[in-house]
Design brief:
The protein is α/β, with parallel strands linked by helices and about 160 residues long. Helix content is about 15%, strand content about 35%. Strand 11 and strand 12 form a beta hairpin.
Amino acid sequence: MEYSTADLSDKYPDVVRVADPIFKSYGAKTSFGGQIETVKVFENNVLVKEWLSQPGQGKVLVVDGGGSLRCALVGDIIAKSAADNGWEGVIVYGCIRDSATIATISIGIKALNTHPFKSIKHGHGNKHIPVLFAGVTFHPGHYVYSDADGVMVSEKPLSL
């Protein structure tokens, strides 16, 4: 489904919270949205891979990677798995890699930047907890909408 964050913000100005404009777009879908699932990790992507290998129809995984720019938390294999499992998108407060290949995968991805290094694989982190970055809190079960203009969150699903 296509979303317009500008139109949603016009229609629901008192309902939405807009994230700071810190993300770059990756993935073949430039507009995406859905119910939020969360994971909080630091320079390891074991929990990210676990979440995205499960069915995710209508959902967006929000990854709080601590804003680290020292390694990637999502690469082409994980992005392909997410798309194959029906995830609408992934928002990464950190980096991705394999961006040229990810640009061909039918999924929406926002991240701070790219980095060629893979993450470590120790599996530490938390999932299904509120995470705070870019000036907003992403709560599991709430909704996120993203397009070329930005990222916004809402407690309830929105429509135009």
